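Wait, mind explaining this?

_____
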Amino acid sequence: MLFLPSSQDHELKALKFFGAGGLVLTSGLFFLGAFLRYVHKIMVFGNGLDGLTRLALRNMARNKTRSLLTAGLLSSAAFLIIAVEPFRKEADSNTGENSGTGCFSIVVETNIPVLSGLDGPSGIETILDGVQKSNRGNPQRARQQVDRFKNVLKDVKVFSLRFNPGDDASCLNLFAPSKPRILGVPNSLQQRGGFLFSATSEAKENPWNLLDSSNTLVNAFVEKNTVEWMIHSGLGKDYKIQDASGKDELLKFAGLFQGSVFQSEILIGESQFLKFYPQQQGYQYFLIDADSKDLSEIEEAFKIGLSDYGAKVSKTKDLVERFASVENAYLSMFQGLGTIGLLIGTMGVAAVLARSVWERRAELGLLSALGFTQVDVVLVMLLEHALLLFLGLGIGTLAALVSVLPLEHSTATRWGVLALLQGGMFFFGLMVCVASLWSIRTSNFVAAMRKD
């Protein structure tokens, strides 16, 4: 399982995850069963802690089925908590062209189209004119802001995309999109390229050239998660949309993005967009390539300069993280279920301990009669169930770590938090066992032995 070829395909990842993890978890429990059969036959000798530990090991195998069931519950819960953590998503630390942000820093959406777009010097002039208009009553402030923004906007590169409104196709929408938002990609962006692709229908040095393909169907790009879970389609499959006149048109998904800013839209070439939606004049979606050190001022410039157009300005990294937060919420739910299972398993160890004490009153009475102190009896019982707790958590943790080896580790993985959680659960289990044993501190086991 570990040596299967690496792939972005979620089905292969699931095979690696469940296959490797399940096999290691099952193997661990088999080895635990063999270990219990072995320690059941060991000789108990020695004194002090060494002798008590040997006695505890032998007692742990007294009821192998009960011990295995308890360890299995603990290991399964620990496996679930740890194994889902590497699936946690955050914005890619790689902010180059072949990343989810495409090396763009800002995305701007407007409610009213900008007829001439914002590309080139004329676009910067449009923004500066908007800054002046927003300060009509204060000419001095207008000049100051224009001078300040002119300096930070001089090296900014803007790509303007056409936009047809519709339903949000991302996982932020609770409902299936019946009419997804459509973006028309200009030739300038196609030639520039960029963004991370999960898969394409044809191998090309620049995948964006697929949008200009002369097939009978119009090629389109979409986010991988969007096409799988929201649109319920896939790479190379057809998808029906309606043009401005209500006529059905077929798109073919020729490329799938991976963790991009385009999770709410379907992208087609600008020429095809104008054929489908000739009434959509101007541009309403803008990608901004800007220097990160001036980002706050550039954001302010676009907000003020395009305020008359109803501009919404977002950082690309924030946008990607907002999409990822939905997946992270589901993962947190699974981890919560695992934590509940771990709590139940820990309480199960305490229940097993209490039942064991009740069933073995005569045995414990014999130990007392042979000279074992009350502290020795309690320590043997505590060691016996602490070892069971440790082995159960250890098997689950080992299986989880092995299962995530084939996966790419996300920088969002909170290994420190997981280690503290596992350590905390072990400590909590010990305290529960101590609390259960506290009740037998005054028990007269010798009297119980005489009664039997």
